[in-house]
Amino acid sequence: MLWVATIVSNIGNWIQEVSSTWLMATMAPDPLMVSLAQVASALPVFLLAIPAGALADVLDRRKLLIFTQAWMLIAAATMAVVTLMGMMNPWILLICTFYLAVGSALNSPGWHAITPEIVPKQELAAAVTLNGLGISCARAVGPGLAGLVLVNLGAGKAFLINSLSFLAVIGVLLAWRRKQRMGNLPAERFVSAMRVGAQHVRHSPVLRLVLVRSGIFVFTTSCLWSLLPLLCKSEYKMEAQGYGLLLVTFGMGSILTASFLLPGWRARYPANTMVSRAWLAYLPVFWMLAECTNNWLPYLVIFWAGGCQICILSCFHLAAQSLAPPWVRARAMSVYLLVYAGSAALGGLFWGYLARGLGLRSCLLLSSAVLFVSAVTAWVAPLHTGEGYDHDPSHHWEDPDVKVDIPLNHGPIQVVVEYDIAPEKAREFVTAMERLKRIRLRNGVLRWALYCDLAAPHRFREVYLEESWAAHLRQHERVSNYEAEVAAAAYCYHRGEEMPEVFHYGYCDERFPGKADEEHEDHTYQEIPLWFLD
Predict the structure, then answer these.
(1) What is the pLDDT of residue 246?
(2) Which of 63, 94, 298, 370 has the smallest set of CB atoms within 10 Å of its CB?
């Protein structure tokens, strides 16, 4: 049901986008105003992607998505009422477009993060493909339907149809009974959640590879989408109907590939093999469009491009969704979506500017060369997905034994782990600890270091700093089975029957340990600023 509601909503979005662009071109046939409409639609993604990801991880995702869908419903309904009343003008249209895009930006990270929640892990790849199939269906149907609605009913009723499409998604979300988050700790602070999200991506090499490769691909292939309207008009001598049919053909290529070919390929080939082969298969698209001299070849080429693109992007989406654990998944997806949107925007600007000097056909040939050179990333930066990672909480860390009352928001907290390592195993132990270091930093610690006692070289101390006591307790709740395996690989070098000894130290100030005089207001010492520790 959620997939069907998504298709309905995506078709409504196409109707909205085509109608608002046409209305702006009709009311203010000024290139600057039309460009401002595109800016109003894209700007909120850059401003709100990271905060939206933090909100989706901190708050209840179901309630947040209901709120954002209602936000977009109100925005689209407002545009419909104002237009039907004859009060719409270019500036009101810009404001409403921006307001609608804010809702979309707040919605996207949480929306992409719920897929692994509602499908079993073994079906995640199929679910991601199905989502891409839904987007392709909307791309195939949306523009043509938008034209029909716009011609026969007008922009006001087109906006009204889009507002009604959000009701389908809201209805499904209201019927969804999401599994409640376990744990007794309060939610993360908003600013801290954003920091931890960015830090998680920074210290996750496999996730960074997804961002780099997807960014390169989207930046390069944006040449096609930024220049295709001009190609149709000036080179292929097509009218608006021909351009719309090309978009439909692209969607059909994606739909047929995802429906009949992609499931079998997923069963036989790993994600990196699929991406590298589809990447190379995409190369002829640019030079064939550049050298095309007849009217039917562009349709075949675009159909082929649709099949290649669904193979590549579905693998990137799967990797981004499966590599991050549930507690930070929306934040990881927000970074991925920001890279995706930024690469598309910068790529469109770059190729558009370059085409002014080189010409359309030369620019397409150059982008084909760039895509060919960047294909080397399949070998130097192979793509990995997280389907084999067990992100379920291990619950193998016992709660710390403390003898003093400590507020949850007190910090920073220093954690010290002592190891007794045989000298001949020291180098192997340090290598294993490097993997554990990345996990600690991914999970939000402020600073991490490993020390060797100069007087007793067999004694090692792992020292890391947590933002607060609550942040450290969250580590105990969140550590996954996969992370527990990495930690066990390091702990196995420790000599002795007991586990390595762990010490917890709280930062001392006028409030801890003990309580400060409630009447004393002239505090000489303040809590150590966290920015100083970074």
Answers:
(1) 85
(2) 63
pLDDT at 527: 45
Contact 206, 356 (CB under 8 A): no
- Bridge-based pairing of strands 501-506 and 447-452 is unpaired
Cα–Cα distance between 253 and 301 in angstroms, integer? Answer: 10
43 vs 254: CA distance, rounded Å? 28
Asked if 16 and 76 touch (Cβ cutoff 8 Å), the reply is yes
User: Which amino acid, residue 386?
Assistant: G
**Whether 410 contacts 511, CB under 8 Å:** yes
Distance between CA 265 and CA 273 in Å, rounded? Answer: 10
Judged by phi (left if over 0) then psi (alpha if -120 to 50, else beta), residue 479 lies in beta
- 255 Cβ contact list (under 8 Å, min separation 6): 133, 136, 137, 140, 306
Tell me what pLDDT residue 2 has: 66
SS (H, E, C) 157-211: HHHHHHHHHHHHHHHHHHHCCCCCCCCCCCCCCHHHHHHHHHHHHHCCHHHHHHH
pLDDT of residue 520: 39
Can you give 59-126 as a three-state secondary structure string? CCHHHHHHHHHHHHHHHHHHHHHHHHCCCCCHHHHHHHHHHHHHHHHHHHHHHHHCHHHHCCHHHHHH
Helix axes 297-323, 271-291, angle to 10 degrees: 150
Residue 355, classed as helix, strand or coil, is: helix
Contacts (Cβ under 8 Å, ≥6 apart) of 508: none
Taking the mean position of all CA atoms in its chain, how far away is CA 412? 30
Q: Which residues of 320-340 are buried (b: 16+ CB within 10 A; e: fewer)?
A: bbbbbbbbbbbbbbbbbbbbb
Under-70 pLDDT residues of the chain: 1-3, 29-32, 34-35, 132-133, 136, 139-140, 143-144, 180-183, 240, 515-534
H or E stretch including 250?
helix 240-256
